[in-house]
Amino acid sequence: MGEFVQGLLQVFTWPAFGIMLVGMAVGFAVGVLPGLGGAVTLALLLPFTFAMSPLEAFAFLLGMNSVTATAGDITSVLFGVPGEATTAATIVDGHPMAKRGEAGRALGAALSSSMVGAIVGALALALVIPVVRPVVLAFQSPEFFMLTLLGVTFVAALSGGAVVKGLIAGGFGFLLSLIGLDPQTGVQRATFGRLDLWDGVGLIPVTIGLFAIPELIDLAVRGTSIAEGPPGRLGGVMQGIVDTFRHGWLTIRASIIGTVVGVIPGLGGSVAQWVAYAHAVQTSPDRSRFGQGAIEGVLAPGAANNSKEGGSLIPTIAFGVPGSVSMAILLGAFLIHGLVPGPDMLTTHLTLTFSMIWIIVVANVITVAVTLLFLNQLVKITYLRSSLVIPVILFLVFFGAYAEQNALFDLGLVIVFGALGWAMVQTNWPRPPLILGLVLGSLTERYLFLSVNRWGWEWLTRPGVVVFALLIIAVLAYSIRQEARGRAVTPAEVGRASDT
Amino acid sequence: MRRTPEIAFNVGVVLAVAWIIWQAIGSGPLREMAPGWLAPWVPRGWGPRSGLFPLVISIPVLLLALAQLMLTSGGVRGTGTGENPSVRPFDVAPAVVRRRSAIIIITIVGFAVAVVLLGFTVAIPLVTFLYLKLGTDEPWSLSVGLAVGSGVFFYALFVRALNVPSPPGLLLAPLLG
């Protein structure tokens, strides 16, 4: 209990609180601007945290990340363009509300349900810690090795119906982590004789290249102003807030759905919103209102988007298995700041863990309060032409990559991995498993090394290892079955669609 | 025909993973036989300790990549886009897509080259101006204003206030001593 309260007090210490406010301002801009994702921005801002203490770094990064989904709802409602991939479901009913002059009500509902969602997700994280702790402490290197494999399998298998490609990308990420000097033996691996590669390829240039460059190209090619139409009349914001509490039980249920989806690595935010939306439709007595501007259709995804952040932090902190791309990058921040996810985060660094939970809550409460006050002015940012935004992003891309190690060589890496990321997008290969493989690669290798050294190949017969192996097989079997079923159904659906 | 890029990408993945396996296992006899100039390119192998993890990962990945290559060549596609369901097609003419793609790619690569040659302090305003004026035909006042503003912002915040090391670039370094 002491750590719980201390965690809250630490959030309000200076300069951590000020840094969190800066992070929130950046997160807000990123959330409102379509084309800039929360994960990309996390990668861009990661280098700026090097000089900070762990608390300040997470106040900055989590403060930023936890408000992007909240802010993304604004663009979704006003313009029918998702500010974030995770806020697409809010469009379905939020934008029709805006078109019929209820933009304020829709935004009031989206923002207040986001706040409820964030609080529920953070509470779930706080409640789960005592339960998870003994489990984590019982694990040894073979179990952790299998867990990392399970994490990559989850992300690979559940990211967009391309199971085999996802697994290959995850494995490729593992192989990328080999580049450099082997920490165990000092052998050079895949360095091409270059001194610049002795320390391996940095997470920042790889992530920026893979994610930011393709988005930059996409934004430049579209060439439109970011928002494509004028917003509807604002007003009725209070009514939207009242709606959140009038449908309080639905908001809580959607928040719980978001948390559970967030806990499962690989499912991520874009799934959470749709599951919550589907739940709202299924449990409504009048389903015909959905898609026409039903307030429940705004509340459910709004709540789920934010509660999933707390949920996805659970496996990240407890097991070092990130629940989403953002969490994979955040995991990189853990390692940069000398924190190893797992038992340490639940014992030695428990206060910091609770501070992270509080950051999510405090950042969302402040964001919603400020947004409600300045809603009219803030939406104007979406009218910026892409040509004016691109030079700023370009600067962040290259300076962010350079600042990690002050190495110009990393600019080349950005271009190489930018080309790879662009090719992956064009050929429908998933990128998140690759990043996850790269992030987890050195840990996975160490766990394998320790397991083989201590137990020989006997470790393969440990009960925990067998359970994880069966889980991996089950995940793969389920995903392959789903993909095969989808492939069988798709032509029929296409035929049906073309008939109508 | 549309599958050609996918097959090419898949072949690239197979070759990259096969190369890792070759590097990990090594090729002692081949190294002995190779002429002197070629010998450094023939891998020694990483040994059982450093080679264990690469082989544990790369052998199954190679098999999966070959399986995927067969699926792609056979015309089997996944049911999804691989990651992002919100990818939208471009609503501009193909010629415009090509022109804008060329401009942004040149800008990206040009920015990196400019930083190496001239340093961040000069590259940021220069590339910002060139992109705004020549790339997107923004007005002179806006292009110059944003270019100068971005340069001043970078210099004031990162160089002066935060003391981030910013090398002057290969061309300017001799001039600045």
Word description of this protein:
The complex is a heterodimer of chains A (500) and B (177). Chain A contains 20 helices and two strands. Chain A has a two-stranded antiparallel sheet. Residues 489-500 of chain A have low confidence and may be disordered. With 500 residues, chain A is mainly α. Chain A has one domain (2-164, 193-419, 447-499). In chain A, helix 1 packs parallel to helix 16 (350-378), helix 4 (54-79) packs antiparallel against helix 6 (103-138) and helix 7 (141-158) packs parallel to helix 20 (463-499). Chain B has two domains: 4-73, no CATH class; 94-176, no CATH class. Chain B has 177 residues and is mostly helical. Chain B is extended, with a radius of gyration of 25 Å. At the A-B interface, helix 8, helix 9, helix 17, helix 18 and helix 19 of A face helix 1, helix 3, helix 4, helix 5 and helix 6 of B.
Give a short summary of the structure.
Chain A has 500 residues and is mostly helical. Chain A has helices at residues 2-11, 16-32, 38-45, 54-79, 89-99, 103-138, 141-158, 163-176, 203-222, 237-246, 248-263, 268-282, 296-319, 325-336, 343-346, 350-378, 386-405, 409-426, 432-455, 463-499; strands at 180-181, 188-189.
